[in-house]
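OP here, attaching both records as promised.
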Amino acid sequence: MLIDLMQNIGIFYYWTWFIWPFVFVFSLVYAITALVKDDRASMKPALIASASLLIILAGIAGPLLE
């Protein structure tokens, strides 16, 4: 079940590959700068960065999971 989910996310990545590296880098940088500036910063940018990293890795490893 989880392997099928990873393969489906991988297919989604193939159609939108040009978006996810930018989303990952910008949200990670925003999360780090927000945490450095304020102790009570929101963790939403870090969650977005982690989700985009999951999509990138599923796109790379998805076809290999058969």
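Record two, same layout:
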Amino acid sequence: MSTHPSPQELRRKWKAANAEPVEGSRRLDAYRELAEGCPAFVPNLLALSRTCLLDRDEAHLDEAERALRTAADVSAGAPEPLIELGRFLATARSSPEHAEAAFASAASAALSLLEEAWAGWIHALGQQDKLDAALEVAEQAKRIVPESAAIARAVEEVERRAAR
């Protein structure tokens, strides 16, 4: 039974694959080998799909699509793989209706992440008593996500802290 590569080993192998020349098949083969060893390593799957797209024959397009769909699946709806899948579907497959679904999912996931990041940023600034900076970030966040409960809670906490 083989063991799964460590995160450091995955990064080392991926960096080595990225260093291979684009011409020929060495880079593509390195990405394929890494994908075989760790089919859930999303950065490699995205790089594999991009490299496949350099040669627009049907076999490479199919491989790129498989890599993108796997990346979207194993990343549990993370925005980046969905965006790349949407671009692929819109351009390589001329399928705007399927691209629309991928882009809509990516936008929703990205907005949710942005909302969490802003709420966390506001909270961290408030904890450091950087109240003006926290309120400035909150104003920006509220313009984009005005109905956010997470941002509202973070702002309430900052305002309570400021009132002390």
